[in-house]
Amino acid sequence: MNQSPILIIEDDEGIRAACREILELEGFEVDVCENGKEALKFLERHQEPCLILLDMMMPVMNGREFMEGFAKRPHTIVPIPVYLVSATANQEAGMEMGCMGFLKKPFNIEALLAIVRSHCKINNCKTKNGSPTPSV
Predict the structure, then answer these.
(1) How many CA atoms lie within 13 A of 47 on its CB side?
(2) What is the pLDDT of residues 56-82, one digit of tens each?
(3) Of 4, 65, 80, 100, which cross-links 50 as Cys (Cβ 3.0–4.6 Å)?
(4) What average pLDDT does the structure give for the chain?
(5) CA 106 to chain centre
(6) Crossing angle for the helix pair 36-45 and 63-71, nearest 10 degrees?
(7) Domains of the chain and any CATH numbers
(8) pTM of the model as a whole
């Protein structure tokens, strides 16, 4: 069984690429979308992610508009956690939108990895001490 990917919704190509590279180097699968509209369409056609990292200020459909559309989607048994990643918003704005958490840009890589590790497993297999192990 494949692990659920992380979905990054970010319009800045540099941030999107850097986040993807960091997470893939840590062993996570990553999908990316450039705006909220693209992400809602993506979610209709692909496996549900284990986590969504959502930018606030994007063209076409911003983070708030994405969350409004996301809330209308059919729900699964386990909700998909969404973290707002923004330089302009704050924790309170994220909570009002229905996000589980908030990460302020520019963010610390270890803070990003801590959030991802708390929601996503590498290869769905962990050792007793929590470290990832290769799938067999």
Answers:
(1) 12
(2) 999 999 999 999 999 988 776 678 999
(3) 4
(4) 86
(5) 16
(6) 30
(7) 6-124 (3.40.50.2300)
(8) 0.84
